[in-house]
Specification:
This protein is α/β, with parallel strands linked by helices and 353 residues long. Helix content is 41%, strand content 18%. It has a six-stranded parallel sheet with strand order 2-1-3-4-5-13, sandwiched between helices.
Amino acid sequence: MSRIGALRAFAVLGATAVVLAGCAAAPAPTAAPTSHFCARMVTNSGGLQDRSFNQASWAGLQKAKKSLGIGAEVLVSNSETDLQPNVDQAVASGCGFVLTVGYELTPATTAAAKANPGIDFSIVDDTAVAPNIKPIVFDTAQAAYLAGYLAAGVTKTGKVATFGGGNQPPVTLFMDGFVDGVAHYNTVHGTSVVALGWNKTTQDGVFTGDFEDTAKGLTVTNGFIDQGADVILPVAGQVGEGAAAAALQAGHVSLIWVDSDGYNTLPAEYRPILLTSVLKNTGNAVVEIVGQSLSKRFDNSPYVGTLKNDGVGIAPFHDLASKVSTNLDKELTQLRADIVAGTISVTSSSTPK
């Protein structure tokens, strides 16, 4: 089987292992909840094992289940046709809290919330407006700024690159921060590192058109490698695993993952090429908001993850720590402090409010 075939097979197997096929019931909780409160989560069409925010959100809900003593199950959407039925089933469960993940679910979440004012809803990575919907969004440009600075500091070719799954604010927010971080490094060090794949001014760049086809990630990344890029930031969900495969095959290319720490969520074979990850600490936000719903303190003001509240950040350098000099590491620490203090302002037209 080819590498891409294996990747696709792995994704399918991962999804089917947890799928509530045809919106069937999730596996029974391993321990009885200590209260009658329960929560339901609905994934976007990328499925549960997406190495990204579906997986991270479910990890957060599982943590809430354990720490708060609630019932929690997930409804997995394998295609766009599953979205509305899964939201309907989540509502029909009688649970007091429904968590949906991604912009695809905004229409269904909004309609369900307006029709069910007694249920608390949260949506990850998009803004839906209703009195009982609390958006969970992240200013990932702040953390991606650090990642861009890091990439510019470790490149040997003077070229780095980024691409997205689709031209959407939650994606381009990463890309804006990344290219600005590269530019800041150039200003500080008098270098001329080039960031391929994204033009912040025109808000245009390289996109694969979806978040699941790993073959597209492989092709796009090989194109960047052919142009000389040796650090790649894919913002494309499972498509990014194709980028990881291309980087591993090239042998001299590093990858920066997004949303979760790829060192822990990707297959172990990719660990040698993972420089860091731009993190959304989705799980922590989910636990906090479920607790608010449980204790009747829920409100609809957006949760915005930032460097200041540890809602975003960058992961450890793991196996590639030797690539990051002591001076560069110190610069990143100071840069983070400057962003938190407001001394350095990271801006994007996609910054969540």
